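Support reply, case 0932

Customer input (verbatim):
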Amino acid sequence: MNAQVNSINTTNALVEIQHELKAPKDKFNSFGKYHYRSCESILEALKPLLVKYGCTLVLTDESKELCGIPVVIATAKFTDSNGKETVVKAEAGVEVSKKGMDIAQTFGTSSSYARKYALNGLFLIDDSKDADTDEYINQTNNSKSQTVNKRNITAEGFNAACGAVESGQCTADKVIMQYALSPEQIKHVKSLGVA
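Our regenerated output:
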């Protein structure tokens, strides 16, 4: 094993792990009736490969607000045996008023989701067929009409969202899709940025 670690250069260790990683969809959503992989499932599959190639992985989170929406930003930092780092980040919005969950649970759920997608990006895990992705939803619902639940926004929140569009922190499309806006508000947001 040591000979293999020493013979693999920085880039190859990550490539080898990406190639060898098998992260099973070992969880089942009984409501949606689909199998999926969790962040924890990916980490369990990664641990032996990290040891095999003498690499480390550190996951961290930070939270911030974008367009009036709390967001968790997960960072996956892969370090090979030579000390070279590869960093991937992923974001997930936080639904602070999720029924049946307190604020810590909603942030924890968003953290796990963002971490999963940071790991997916770092280790080239294809989730396009997973039931929690946009592609899967589009494939399974293309003949069904979807109801979009938009959040109400206060005048103060609307002004903050407009400021975020103007400063480039988010797009006009994101604001329009996220909030229930009047036709005048939509027109105003579109005038601030490319929708």
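We compared this against your earlier run and they match. Two observations from our side: Strands lie at 27-29, 34-36, 56-66, 69-79, 85-93. Residues 103-123 form the longest helix (21 residues). Please reopen the case if you see a mismatch on your end.
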